[in-house]
Write a structure and sequence with these properties.
The chain contains 3 helices and 8 strands. By secondary structure, it is of the alpha/beta class. The protein has a 4-stranded mixed sheet with strand order 1-4-3-2, with helices on one face. It has a 4-stranded mixed sheet with strand order 5-8-7-6. This is VOC domain-containing protein.
Length: 134
Amino acid sequence: MNFASVRIITDDVDRLVNFYEKVFGVSAERPAPVFAELVMPSCTLAIGHSQTVPLFGEGSAVAADNHSVIIEFRVHDVDAEYERLQPFIEEWVKEPTTMPWGNRAILFRDPDGNLVNLFEPVTEEAIKRFSGRD
C-alpha cells in the first residue's frame, strides 16, 4: 500500500490553492474547477470543493472544520521558511521552536484554519530518525 495524498475539503478552492502554491512554491494541477492537486516528490496535497463531498457519501466531510489533524512537511531550514512566509501567513501558532523530540518547527493555520507544521530534524537523534526517509 502506498500513501497517495491528503485532501482538504473547502468552500474556496482558489483561495487554498493560491495559499499552498505560495507555501510550497509549486503550481497546482487543476483537472476540474472543484479539485486541485499540489504534487511534490514526497506527497500530494489535494484540495476539493465541498460540492464534491456527496461523491464520497453525504456528510462524510465538512469544509473548514478540522480540529484534530496537523498537516506536516519536512523542510531544509525552518528559520528561512519562517522569514519567507512572514508576508502572507495571517495566523502563526508557533514561531520557530525546537521541540522536545528534536525537530525545529513552525506552525501556522491556512485560510480555512487547518494547522500546518513545517519542521526540520536538528538533534542527532531526530536526524538519525529521519535518515533514509525521502
